[in-house]
Write a structure and sequence with these properties.
The protein has 265 residues and is an alpha/beta fold. The chain has helices spanning 13-21, 24-38, 59-66, 78-91, 127-140, 219-227; strands spanning 5-6, 49-53, 70-75, 96-99, 111-116, 141-152, 162-170, 173-181, 190-201, 204-215, 232-238, 256-263. It has two domains: 13-39 and 47-154 and 217-263, Vaccinia Virus protein VP39 (Rossmann fold), CATH 3.40.50.150; 155-215, N-terminal domain of TfIIb, CATH 2.20.25.
């Protein structure tokens, strides 16, 4: 049986960027389409100011910056922030980055678009922190601005372990990423997950494993959190296929939800 070296998922920022980078263009396309569809026009001028809480390596922010957006991101991981700043410099793009927690941040200016995808919201381990985060985003958005929030919901009746695997390659690295863990605890509403990376480069192989804990939500629990932040109006639900012309039912058969939350004027 293969053995894995323990590592911090976010200290290996380059590998993280490769693993998730395959979806960057699709995600940026969807964010632009969502902004065009759900943000009311402001005097006929397109709004192009974006904020990403828990921005990680800044991969989506860089794509938006290349498309003319003014972008800002924050994260708790210093390694990820260093990586993001460096890649912006190398690309000749401009972006603002600072260190802060998702539930406790202050940012100058107001934004038309904020987004947090791939279930990062679930790192907030209490409803109190989740509500504080949503209120912080609401304060950062201009009236009519939207928050695009993506997360997987949990079916607490399903007691089977979760598991997904995919492969990505870039810069001479071939990476297989496996993410999984036991079924969520319906009482504590937490799930313990692992990410295993098998990294091939020039005949060498590294095997790394990181673990973390997520807060989980069924439809009822997520509605409760959203209702606690009336500043944000839930105007649409999509899924991780990121098709702007196909909407999903909140709490429907698909557990992957991409919520469009609009700042009330």
């Amino acid at each position: 049986m293969a053995t894995y070296e323990t590592f911090d998922w976010y200290d290996e920022a380059h590998c993280y960027d490769i693993v998730f980078g395959t979806g960057t263009v699709t995600e940026a396309d969807f964010l632009e389409a969502a902004a065009a569809r759900y943000i009311p026009p402001a005097g006929g001028t397109a709004r192009r100011r974006a904020l990403e809480p828990a921005c990680g390596t800044g991969r989506i922010l860089l794509e938006l910056a290349k498309r003319g957006w003014s972008v800002t991101g924050f994260d708790l991981s210093e390694g990820s922030l260093r990586y993001a700043r460096r890649r912006f410099r190398e690309a000749g793009s401009r972006g603002r980055f600072f260190r802060a927690a998702m539930q406790d941040f202050t940012v100058a200016g107001s934004f038309d678009l904020a987004f947090c995808l791939v279930s990062t919201f679930k790192y907030l381990l209490s409803d109190r922190d989740a509500i504080a985060h949503l209120r912080g985003v609401a304060r950062a958005l201009a009236p009519g601005g939207i928050y695009v929030l993506g997360l997987h919901l949990t079916d607490y009746r399903d007691r089977s372990p979760g598991f997904e695997r995919w492969r990505a390659a870039r810069d001479g690295l071939r990476i297989t990423c496996t993410i999984g863990g036991p079924a969520a605890d319906p009482v504590s509403r937490t799930e313990d997950l692992f990410a295993r990376l098998t990294i091939h480069r020039n005949g060498d192989v590294r095997r790394l494993e990181s673990t973390w804990r997520f807060r989980t939500y069924g439809p009822r629990q997520l509605r409760t959190v959203l209702r606690a932040v009336p500043e944000l109006e839930h105007v649409a639900t999509h899924d991780f296929d990121y098709r702007i012309n196909r909407r999903s039912a909140f709490g429907g058969d698909r557990l992957d939800h991409v919520l469009i939350l609009r700042r009330r004027g």
